[in-house]
Amino acid sequence: MESNGPGIEYREIKRADLGSFDQLIVQGIGKLERSTGLDELALSLFQSLHSPSVWTFLKILQWVGRAPIKVFVGVDSGRVLGTASVIMLEKSGYVAGVATDSQARRRGIATHLLERIHLEVQQERKEWAVLDVETENDTAIDLYRKLGYVQTAVFGWYVGPPPELADPGDGVATPVSGSQMAEVADWVRRNLPPSIADPLPPTRKRLSYVETVIRGPRTPIKTWRLTDAGETRAAVRACYFDRIRTGFILPLAFDSVPTVEPLTSLFAPAVRWVRSSGGTKLVITFPVPSTGLEQTMEVLKLPLTVSTALMVRPSREGSV
After folding, report:
1. In sequence order, which residues have a C-beta less than 8 Å from that of residue 241 and are 6 or more positions away?
2. Pairing mode of beta strands 150-160, 174-175
3. Which member of 10, 11, 21, 45 lies 3.0 to 4.6 Å from 2 by CB, making a disulfide possible if both were Cys?
4. Which of 9-18, 45-54, 268-277 comes out lowest in average pLDDT?
């Protein structure tokens, strides 16, 4: 338990905090969440904490040091004024859910919470703290830079109805089986830019770090790849959320950026899977600029809705 000035207590969340915590989470919802439906998924996740069984299970995981996420709060007189969470990945701590009450800003609350998380990342012997922030959020970006975060990539989020695509026949992407997943994960790692692959290496369970942000343990997923002479040339993963009738398609990597025609073939089975699942919204996100991919979004009639910056902070001074 820590304090920062009169009345503010910094610690992990308690069940008694949930009332004001819920109100704060609503304040922290931005354009990305609203445009993609992630707002509804996030609210559902945090509301599940009100369930005694879920809360008890989370506390047990915390006691044995295996909680998938830690939620920190700044509390004043029983009211949550700020929050930030961290998810421990293979090499990094992914920071999410950073929010400060609109009436309590400029009191250093976000800074204190982020430094508390950075200490947690160091204690877990992770090499980086990593986060995403909307590129229009200058205030947050300035804060992250002051704390040592550096921008390593920009992602474009393209959102719209899933288009109707004809079966392209020969050359279409083929499904990746479970037995092939480790091989594909290794291929993705080798073909990602080091600025992404080093702090956020893919695994057979999560081929894209974006899955950490959007996927639950039971989210339906499918993976496809384009091959040439038996060699993987490009890969894509799709997740579907029935609750919001939305599919997310995540281009994973390319040995070289293909032209529009093979890219459309790569996306086609994923788009059809989303449509057949009942999806009414499609979200595709990838690092920009990427000419072939951006042209393919025009073919799929998916407009760029929001951009986010991936920012990374080494856990120890002088590390790279």
Report:
1. 37, 41, 214, 219, 247, 248
2. unpaired
3. 10
4. 45-54
DSSP string covering the chain, please?
-EE-STTEEEEE--GGGHHHHHHHHHHT--HHHHHHTHHHHHHHHHHGGGSHHHHHHHHHHHHTT--S-EEEEEEETTEEEEEEEEEE-SSEEEEEEEEE-TTSTTSSHHHHHHHHHHHHHHHTT-SEEEEEEETT-HHHHHHHHHTT-EEEEEEEEEEEPPPP-----TT--EEPPGGGHHHHHHHHHHHS-HHHHTTS---SS-SSTHHHHH--TT--EEEEEEEETTEEEEEEEEEEETTTTEEEEEEEEESS---HHHHHHHHHHHHHHHHHTT--EEEEEEEE--HHHHHHHHHTT--EEEEEEEEEEESSTT--
Please give the average per-residue pLDDT across 147-156, as a whole number.
Answer: 97
Rounded Cα–Cα distance for residues 145 and 247 (Å): 33
Name the token pair of 38.
Answer: 């992630």
Name the token pair of 122: 């160091």
Please give the tally of structural domains in the chain: 2
Q: Calculate the dihedral angle through the C-alpha atoms of 55, 58, 60, 62, rounding to the nearest 10 degrees.
A: -130
Q: What is the pTM of this model?
A: 0.90
Q: How many residues does the chain have?
A: 320
213 vs 135: which has the higher pLDDT: 135
The pLDDT confidence band at residue 56, using thresholds 50, 70 and 90, is low
- Where residue 40 sits, what CATH number does that domain have? 3.40.630.30
Is 34 within a domain?
yes
Same domain, 122 and 169: no
Token duo for residue 277: 């699942």
Query: How many whole angstroms separate alpha carbon 102 and alpha carbon 133?
Result: 18
Q: Within its chain, how far is the Cα of 233 from the centroid? A: 24
Answer whether the bond into residue 289 is a cis peptide, omega within 30°.
yes
Q: Supply the pLDDT for residue 54.
A: 47
